[in-house]
Amino acid sequence: MSQVAVVHYPNVHFDYYCIIPHPTELQVLLLAGEDGWSLPSFVPYEHHFGMVSHINKTMNDQLGLNVTTLRCFYEDYYSDTNTGCRVYAMENHSLDWILPTHAHWVKSNELDRLIVIPKLYQILNSWFAEIQSNSIPEMRVPWAKLGWFDRASIWINRQLETLSLSATTPIEQVKSQTRSCLLRVRTTDGTLYLKAAYGIFGTEATFTDFLSQLYPDYLPKLIAVNTEQQWMLMREFEGQHLGQAVDVSRWEVALRRYAEIQVQMANQVDQLLDVGFPDRRINQLAQRIEPLFADDAALLLPQNDSFLEQLDLEKLRTLIPQLLSWCEVLETCGVPQTLVHGDFYCQNVIDAQQSNIYFDWSDSAVSHPFFDAGFFLFDIAQKLPNVVNVQARLRDAYLEPWTVYLPMKQLTSIFQTTQPLAALYHAIVSYEIIQHLELAHRWETENTVPYYLKMMLGQIFSRLNSGGTIKNGESYMGEAFSDHLA
């Protein structure tokens, strides 16, 4: 969090619209334009739907309004033209704002004579209907509800007062999505961030607090934790994201250190489970394969037919007995199950001068450690294109601490052959996450399930002998572990 990365796709065009309500009345702000009345809008440079500070700033620059973003109310994207539209529901904090001459507060019964874009008319009708019915979905995250930002700001200011600190700038909303919300405040003693999580991610503050006490040099520096709300106030990271490091030795150090933590935590699995880390060990993974593969709706997304097709689904279901068998083999391979990060990639690692900071532990659990490193190294050649044999080099750096259990040759073989199960693991966890999200926001992550399963199929059949039969699939894992099992 030393810097917030900007996501921008040069060939993509998005139009952003903002639903800004009246601070006290059930009305929404419309602006007059060449084509009639419409919502405040702009074309963003930032393309990540969850990054919202630029949205709030643009509305302030355009209209002088102090607003925060509740949620992305609507999204549509057309891959054939690389164009998209997003509509954000906002909270209006400007009680005394003076309406400009080109603006108008509109009630729901006035929309049909003012809005000329049919899609915006439908979206606004849906927004008004939800507000009027007061039927907020149970799974709606707290920061997408009116009043949350003010309550979080009060808590932050209380912590600053306790620490004898003063804010030098207003509290700023940085990020808002179903996974988490991030606020930033600059103080007389550096920049602090509040991260909030909820639902299936709602133990991140507890997990981070627990791990930071064990590894204070390698976890975020927490200033305060509210376990009831799952808020954590932390210092800004010093250093850069590991993905910005061009020296491959920095990557080797980061992977080796992380493996050392996992090796040490392998002796504390019971404590991890007692704290509340999810039990996603291999036997649990095996039980979740068939329910996932039976859910056509989760696997065959009509808007993403480039991921999984019906033929892929048939292949997956044919592989179930072999996947279950491979899980049994991996469970007895000699590498203990331990702490896994669950979202371990270079952007969640800070490369500091004397250490590394590992953050964003919302997906952490107890499972097989190689699931993390396989995810990390999947497209590493694209990130370090000028390093010869970069994947093997970083893999070996990660595996070195595990030689306390097995020789490097066996570890290398096990690591390579666990990668399809690593992809399966991430598909199953993503599927579990989706079930805990508000229905209207499952689009934020639903693509990940078919994506990881497509990856798994590619890894399996690219390594099988010609023909790709199930019999070959059985030998695929068996030969890899033959030395150990013998």
Radius of gyration: 25 Å
Per the CATH scheme, the topology name of the largest domain is Aminoglycoside 3'-phosphotransferase, Chain: A, domain 2
- How many helices does DSSP assign? 19
Beta percentage is 15-25%
Mean residue pLDDT: 91
The CATH class label of the largest domain is: Alpha Beta
Helix content: 40-55%
SS-based class: alpha+beta
Essential attributes:
single chain; 486 residues; Nucleoside Triphosphate Pyrophosphohydrolase; Aminoglycoside 3'-phosphotransferase, Chain: A, domain 2; five-stranded antiparallel sheet; 19 helices
What do these coordinates show?
It contains 19 helices and 17 strands. It has helices at 53-63, 111-114, 118-133, 148-162, 204-214, 248-265, 269-275, 282-287, 289-293, 296-299, 310-318, 320-331, 370-377, 380-383, 390-399, 408-435, 448-463, 470-480, 482-485; strands at 13-19, 28-33, 36-38, 41-42, 67-78, 83-92, 103-106, 172-176, 181-187, 190-196, 222-226, 231-235, 240-241, 338-340, 349-351, 356-358, 365-367.
